[in-house]
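Good day; I would like, with your permission, to put a structural problem before you. What I wish to show you is a protein chain and, alongside it, a tokenised description of its three-dimensional fold. Please examine both parts with care and let me know of anything in them that strikes you as inconsistent. Thank you for your consideration; the sequence and its tokens are set out here:

***
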Amino acid sequence: MSVTAPAGFDAAGVAAGLKSTGKPDVAVVVNRGPRKVGAAVFTSNRAKANPIIWSQQAIADRVVEAVVLNSGGANCFTGSFGFQTTHQTAEKAAELLDISAGDVLVCSTGLIGTGDEEFRAKVLAGTEQAIAELSADGGDAAAQAIMTTDTVAKTAVVSRDGWTIGGMAKGAGMLAPGLATMLVVLTTDADLEALEADTLLRQATGTTFDRLDSDGCMSTNDQVTLLANGASGVKPDLEDFASALRELCQDLAVQLQGDAEGASHDITIRVTHAATEQEAVEVGRSVARNNLFKAAIFGNDPNWGRVLAAIGTTSAQFDPYDVDVWMNGVRVCTEGGPDRPREDVDLAPRATDLLIDLKVGEAEATILTNDLTHDYVHENSAYSS
């Protein structure tokens, strides 16, 4: 049941007419529990959508009672009118829920520049309709309402001894986050302090969503929100909660990777024996964003030369002539030279594993990405104003 799996949360997803398909496009998630703890991380893109600007202000006191989300329009670069739309959305939800507008976060996703008077009217009407339909069984409907180019809704649930975490996510393109990836709402009935929730969320997103780098494009609307209400009455061991939260975030990140626009390969890039974790991430991300490498994988070509060329652009410590590269379990490059024949590598499966051994230190990191396909180019050339 996604975000309504933990006790004390209601949700809904409705069709407000923002999408030309008539599919659901407005969702609301409400915390009905005894505590109203909220934490959030946002895109680090300097070009931020109006809902991000609003939500960054609203989350300052770490109190959140509701989240309103819409697909079908990003409400980004729509001027002061667009910010007023976001403000009115929060006020509408607050009025109907009898809470403070400052405790309502707002999220939008869709085409940048969309947010005129018709958009505003539909979002406000959709917010009212969704609140009227709130229920403890509404998690799946909410997950469907936030989809844009996604082909499937993305949800996950992790339960431990006496408490649960639920989550929903959307995202299929512009997956190169700075702190988050597209829109994600996480809920838990565990009893957490505000600072604990904030710290644990940042730790989890830093090694999951932040390491999904599908196409090198960072959204203006990315937001991950965690709501904690203490409805279970259980104060969790923080290490146990951190592990469970990371597990759930990783599950959602892998679902996002698997639904990336037009992708035919899901590529896991593992960098080992780096001097630092930061350098391992830098090396992995350099390959994840290399279009020549991504195109080679699309063509089922284990072109390890493109891997070395990509990592050579980084500032990481390594000797280019002492690097090993493995593809799907086959070492194709050792000590900067050819090893096994390319024909030994089977890249037909969708799951593709790339291992880069820098032979410098003990740090490692994993980056998730996808190949570059004709379908990706077609989908993003057709997705326009």
About this structure: The chain has a mean pLDDT of 93. Residues 238-258 form the longest helix (21 residues). The radius of gyration is 21 Å. The CA atoms of residues 74 and 109 lie 4 Å apart.
